[in-house]
Amino acid sequence: MADKVTIPALQQMKRDGQKIVASVVYDYQMAQIVDRAGVDLVSVGDSVGA
After folding, report:
1. Is residue 27 one of the residues assigned to a domain?
2. At CB < 8 A and 24+ separation, what contacts does 4-13 make?
3. 35: how many CB neighbours lie within 10 A of its CB?
4. Quick check: is 1 in a domain?
5. H or E segment at 44?
6. Domain encompassing residue 37
7. Among 9, 37, 39, 40, whose Cα sits 20 to 30 Å from the Cα of 25?
8. What is the domain count for the chain?
9. Can you give the pLDDT of all 50 residues of the chain as single tens digits?
10. Alpha carbon of 3 to those of 18, 36, 50: distances in Å?
11. Which residues are CB-contacts of 23 (< 8 A; sequence separation ≥ 6)?
12. Residue 13 lies in a domain
């Protein structure tokens, strides 16, 4: 698992003009996959359609 990305780190990335990679996933298994892929920001939502 990669280091956690903090809000200040995201702000610095934006100031530096770095691209921030984010992904929305719907279960734990996909969250693990995108985390291992190095995605900066992962949002897990398992209440689709509710």
Report:
1. yes
2. 5/40, 5/41, 10/40, 10/41, 13/40
3. 15
4. no
5. strand 41-44
6. 7-44
7. 9
8. 1
9. 557 889 999 999 999 999 999 999 998 899 999 999 999 999 988 666 65
10. 17, 11, 32
11. 34, 39, 41, 42, 43
12. yes
Structure-token pair, residue 43: 């949002």
Does a structural domain hold residue 11?
yes
Q: Map tokens 């990305």 to a residue.
A: 5
Element (H, E) at 22: strand 22-25
The structure tokens 């530096």 sit at 16
The length of the chain is 50
The CA distance from 5 to 7, in Å, is 7
